[in-house]
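dumping this here before i forget
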Amino acid sequence: MELAKVTSKGQVTIPVSIRKRLGIKDGDKLLFIEKPEGVIMVNPTMMAFEKIGQAFRGEAEKLGLENDDDVVAMVKEIRRKRWVQSNESDA
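structure:
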């Protein structure tokens, strides 16, 4: 648990341990979410990545992707197919 003091301007210094945990860097924006039990502060960038991860959970397995090499191979194949399609339309 960390404690911070609010200045007369409403500013708060976020403790280093909390900034590290949330991945907050100089210039980052923070999101304050009101909940019945109080207000939580989150790093919106990290929250977005988490939501993306949740949305794609299970998709790798559906596509048969087991590791980074499988992903690279899939991207190369998609690029090859697009290149072939774009060159067929030019001919």
